[in-house]
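Hello Y.,

Per our agreement to keep a running log of every chain we model this quarter, I'm adding this entry. I've kept the format consistent with earlier entries: sequence first, then predicted structure.
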Amino acid sequence: MVDNSGRPVGVRDVAALAGVSRQTVSRVLNEHPDVADATRERVEKAMGELGYRMNNAARALGTRRSRTLGILASDALQFGPSRSIAAIEASARAAGYWVSAAFADADDAASVSAAVDHLVAQGVEGILVVAPHARTLRMLDTVTVGVPIVTLHSAGHDARGVGVDQVAGARLAVGALADAGHTRIAHLAGPADWLEAESRAEGFAAELAARGLESVLTVVGDWTARAGFEAAQALRDAGATAVFAANDQMALGLIGALHAAGVAVPGEISVVGFDDLPEAAYAWPRLTTVRQDFDELARRAVSAVIAGDAAASAESIVPELVVRDSIAAPSV
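Predicted structure for the entry above:
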């Protein structure tokens, strides 16, 4: 907002309209407790009438607080990371913070370092790392940050991590297939350099072992529907009657390829995914999957970084099996 002279409205203008000193306006802006309620209301009313907008950078100079959190992200186009970023922004705002995001190439140490430097230069009070690769975490260990860091999508792999129990989620998926009577279960895995793909593969193997079963086949994909589509023939050739796909996109691609080949789902091959994409409930058949609570993940991560202690939210979030129509008993 600007006044009649074209000059931006400032603290002086608010003070004049409210009939208080500039120091009092500053105290209201900085949430100082020693301001009478009536005075605070008068100042806030003046701000509204003038259209005053607080300058966070200026506020940070005076208070050493920017009320801003940084997000360092890589592979943000994937569903999990992108959903997490949106949830972090909402949780941060609910806690009275804004966010500033920087994106880095997980394969480039200089890119990660530059992203951290950019966020620190913005005066962020903490950084949430949405970078689900072990190499990104290793790079962070070599960078001097100076503010609290909390990592997402790294549960079980990083002491700063807040996350969903991926192993438990995979075990839910495999258990559902085994409970339906399947003994020839295959895994359509995510990329080997993703921490969550590693954990889901670990859960797949653990649940099979607990039930005295062996994997029919593991095919490594790249999270895309194309990868699921292209894996279909190998999974059929291996004689799998059920497949646990490490994410819903690959599961949906697999189902599409099976339909194209005339293979009934779940009549001949049952499929379970992971994530609970919005599209999963509208697939043909509707996809059974493992749901991650990204909103709770973000809430815990934001709380932890504000507290400066990831251990405060270290307990992993337990995922939920969402049973739909893509599982049936084996036909033979």
